[in-house]
Amino acid sequence: MPELPEVEALKDFLADRLVGHEVVRVLPVAISVLKTYDPPVTALEGREVTAVGRYGKFVDLDAGGLHFVTHLARAGWLQWKDRLPDGAPRPGKGPLALRVALETGEGFDLTEAGTQKRLAVYVVSDPLQVPGIARLGPDPLADGFGEQRLAELLAGERRQIKGALRDQSLIAGIGNAYSDEILHAARMSPFKLASSLSPEEVHGLYDALRTTLSEAVERSRGLAAGRLKAEKKTGLRVHGRTGEPCPECGDTIREVSFSDSSLQYCPTCQTGGKPLADRRLSRLLK
Q1: Distance (Å) of CA 52 to CA 71, 112, 153, 182, 246
Q2: Is there a contact between 161 and 263 (Cβ–Cβ < 8 Å)?
Q3: How many angstroms separate the CA atoms of 239 and 253, rounded?
Q4: H-helix or E-strand containing 18?
Q5: Comparing C-alpha atoms, which of 119, 68, 75 is closest to residue 97?
Q6: Band of the pLDDT at 232, cuts 50, 70, 90?
Q7: How many Å from the N-terminal Cα to the C-terminal Cα in the chain?
Q8: 3-state helix, strand, coil in the chain (%, to 5)
Q9: Contact, 197 vs 205, CB < 8 A?
Q10: Which pLDDT tens digit goes with each residue over 80-137?
């Protein structure tokens, strides 16, 4: 799933190519992608894109006060086309969900792989009309997001720090991958209770959070949309690297599996050398 760094880079990529240009066609191929119907997506046609913004993992195209907002979800992506194919795309079983065409002949496709269709598109007069944006917590790279703010957010959280970091209503934009990366950089167990962090631990977590996300944004900045997924994968130090040596200490990176996701961590760096219980695996072995 694209997270804050990739969506930030995608926002910049689109701003360079969309701002100042007119939307001439919006062609939904999979109707399930549309989460709003009034105004219709065709209301964007004939409007000039004036700005591109980001809210957490949402991208917002401002077309003269009418906002095209999309969330790429787990398997969605945006594919830029220097020249769109002629003719309207046909509905079918392929990944294409929606196409946006500019007056230049350029444009982009929104695609989604797999069978779980979660890619979402909204057309609204105010981004806060999108429920997922309305409930977002603060952006962790915003100028006003300081160490004290992080401490306040975590103070009442009676749950594991991994889950707290991924909660979009608490902090916007961090998902499964970067929460693993942040906790590894902070040398903190993903199972540690969020409200139990000492001032020193909050300081270390804050530094790891800002550094990890900022460096990921810088690695992604200027890349074409099609290269962002690959860049994310190559920049990860522990997430998705089960069985590989930890880049810090050389211990073997371990995994804890859940019903629809998994986390990765280093026992030496994060849990005092003790492997965390993988409840899913334990049940299989009984």
Answers
A1: 14, 22, 28, 27, 38
A2: no
A3: 9
A4: helix 4-18
A5: 119
A6: confident
A7: 33
A8: 35, 20, 45
A9: yes
A10: 999 999 888 877 778 999 999 999 999 999 999 877 789 999 999 999 999 999 999 9
Does residue 6 contact residue 229 with C-beta atoms inside 8 Å? yes
Q: Quote the CA–CA distance of 65 and 51 in Å, as a whole number.
A: 10
How long a stretch of residues is the chain?
286
Q: Which residue has the tokens 């220097």?
A: 82
Pick from 71, 167, 65, 49: nearest CA to 120:
71
Find all residues with CB under 8 Å of 230, minimum gap 6, and list them.
Answer: none
The strand pairing partners of 109, in sequence order, are: 79, 99
How far apart CA 200 and CA 198 sit, in angstroms, is: 5
Q: Across the chain, where does the E strand assignment appear?
A: 23-28, 51-55, 58-63, 66-71, 76-81, 96-102, 107-112, 120-124, 254-257, 262-265
Residue 262's nearest CA partner among 284, 285, 246, 278 is: 278
H or E stretch at 221? none
Element (H, E) at 197: none
> Is the entire prediction scored with pTM above 0.90?
yes
Give yes or no for a contact between 265 and 162, defined as CB atoms under 8 angstroms apart: no
